[in-house]
Amino acid sequence: MLSVIGEIADPMVQVNNPYRISADGEPVVAPGTGGITYNARIGDSAVDIWGDHIEPAVTIKNYKAIDNSAANGGLNLYSCVGNRARVVSGDAKSEFGRVTGKHGGLDHIIIDFTREQMDKMAVGDRIQVIAYGQGLALTDFPGVKVRNLDPDLLETMGIAGNIKTGRLKIQVTHTIPAAILGSGLGRNNTFYGDYDIQMFDPPTVEKYNLNTLRFGDIVAVLNADHSFGRIYREKSVSVGVIVHSRSALAGHGPGVMTLFTSTEGLIDPIIDGKANLKEYFAKM
What we know:
Blueprint: E1 2-8, E2 20-21, E3 27-28, E4 36-37, E5 57-61, H1 70-78, E6 84-87, E7 96-103, E8 108-112, H2 115-118, E9 126-131, E10 145-146, H3 151-156, E11 160-162, E12 167-172, E13 174-177, E14 195-196, H4 202-207, E15 218-225, E16 231-244, E17 255-262, E18 267-271, H5 277-281
Parallel strand pairs: 12-18, 13-15
Antiparallel strand pairs: 1-5, 1-9, 2-3, 4-5, 5-8, 6-7, 6-9, 7-8, 10-17, 11-12, 14-17, 15-16, 16-17
């Protein structure tokens, strides 16, 4: 159990170029990553929102190092979903929230706070995470690997298993085919970041009910192995959490950050509309 720290990050846009070019070739101007997002939290729609890669509630990054890589790497590696996070500077000092995800590329940590708490915060306020969970292993279920998960959250999720078969039943809101996962592929590990659900094919969106995705939803990605990076592998199953909103950019969409993975497909996803961090955090 370690302390890691970051500052509430600035929302950043390239000067003189506010446009993002959509997958249909249209210029789009929309809110994006970083800062304090007052009107988006876990449990809210990650799709029905005017924005691009919106990170719900509060975004932090560690700017301590000159190139902000090593210190921010520690923040990103050790932080786990469900970890408690305490504000240590500014008017909201001593307020607590919980980590909801990691956003790759920008290497942000996303933390849930109430609107009342956020109203007291400012960009630059420092937030310390009580980082705990990396290295967590299910010793009775060696065929399922765990990533980025606070042990207390694991206890709250109500996961059931059969030791004889080595299989786990995990509640999820959606099952998603690995074939439509895009940006975020290519890393050799799943301790950092996320990858994105492409939502540009309407029949697929309808078939898998993707328009109902919410921040904090626990989802299963079918035929995906996240053991040593994110790859397509038939019969493998991975489970993750929705960490950011949809996007107009080609290859991008709601972000999935890894929580569980099984090369042999020893995870049985059970559809449950309440499988969301908002529900689980209320019990912690």
